[in-house]
Amino acid sequence: MIKINYSLKTEDLRGKLSKFWDLSGEKVKLIENEYDHSNGSPVFTINGKYTTKGWTEWTQGFEFGSAILQFDATGGKEFLKYGRQQTVQEMATHISHIGVHDHGFNNISTYGNLLRLMKEERIPFDEWEKNFYELALKVSGAVQASRWTNIKDGGFIYSFNGPHSLFVDTIRSCRILMLSHAMGHVLQADNDMKINLLGRAIQHMKATADHCVYYGDGRDYYDIWGRTAHEAIFNTNDGNFRCPNAQQGYTGRSTWTRGLAWAMCGFAEELEFLKTLDDNELTAFGGRPAIEEFMLKAAKASCDFYIDHTPTDGIPYWDTGAPLLHKLGNYLERSADPYNDIEPVDSSAAAIGAQGLLRLGKYLSTSDEESSKKYYQAGLAVLNTLFDEPYISADSSHQGLILHSIYHQPNGWDHVPEGSKIANGESSMWGDYHAREVALYLQRIIDKENYYTFYNCIS
Q1: What is the tens place of the pLDDT at every residue in 365-418?
Q2: What pLDDT does 53 receive?
Q3: Domain-embedded: residue 19
Q4: Is residue 3 part of a domain?
Q5: Is 244 a member of any domain?
Q6: Residue 57 pLDDT
Q7: Residue 16: which CATH number?
Q8: Contact by Cβ (8 Å): 356, 261
Q9: Containing domain of residue 63, as a range?
Q10: The whole model's pTM is what?
Q11: What is the pLDDT of residue 335?
Q12: Which of 278, 295, 382, 407 shows the smallest number of beta carbons within 10 Å?
């Protein structure tokens, strides 16, 4: 269980954030100068050098988005120039990519961040440039929403595995539907039928809350509060839920911690977004009380599970049901060990999950002070560990920023260094990006600047 230090203050991390951004800038430049993009998008490192891994093109937005976040945090104009240039040159195919569930990753990290900076008056306003970013986000949201499977009680955006497959990851792609809707866009289908993008996002979130998050009662009487499944499988003929499953986790009935982290972060930030909507917009989809109830339940459950099933320092192992974890003994009663010989940790789950904890804590600050403090202070505890050695990468030749990330343990994709029995010491593009994102979130709170959200790009 995470050891929550209630005396730790946000301001106490200022020094670590300063070092973090110095290292981050070096890593962005290393990749820009050394990585050969003819090989495809950078995904994870091997021996400290970014390489690609063909599955789907879901990480390129994190690469260029990292440069944009670096500018946002430090004001380094060379990072803005690179991020903006690469977005224009390389990201168009991601807008119209009909084969992935990752639009909220790629396109909000690039077009969304650039538009946000303009709306926040961090970069000069230009009407045509604004229209360019808005059009990209509108189209991306509609394309993402078109990957749709109807089920008995709603529907969901299906994963790249096919129409039967709901991934917990996709909770973060709901953001792109919400932005597109907020900009006045719809998905048009046969006979000019107009499909409401907010409605699809809410239906997807409800399906995720119902079928990927477990609560220990009702249908889940045999399970425990807050466990998540990576994938939910449906019968596409009749719309019935069939079973939980896992791709990157150990099993459908264990918890892949990065999937857990996606749920934590996704539900929390989308709860924040709902506050910006008029009640009338939500009436057709069940009304505000019912929507906020299921989302808050899922957010609390997933965050509680993370706190209870993560080592004391806030860094989780790759799956809470990993088959050899028992050989580590009372691993939840001490700090995680990324160099053990049994099971790897996943620092990328910590980077994503910490943001969920912090946002949920802030969300509850006006309604539930006790829970608010618990979640927010747990988020600080995670980052206090993550932004320090052995997780921060101080090696000037290593292109990664956050060490000990895991991509796909069951497939054996992650690099096992010589002399080790498990993967460790490497970084991932999603882990590095989300570490930057949560660092920016925290820095803005410390500096009392505009609260960082994905929807700051809306007028």
Answers
A1: 999 999 999 999 999 999 999 999 999 999 999 999 999 999 999 999 999 999
A2: 86
A3: yes
A4: no
A5: yes
A6: 85
A7: 1.50.10.10
A8: yes
A9: 10-457
A10: 0.98
A11: 98
A12: 278
| Domain count within the chain | 1
Residue 2 lies in a domain: no
The stretches in the chain having pLDDT less than 50 are none
Interatomic CA distance for residues 44 and 258, integer angstroms: 15
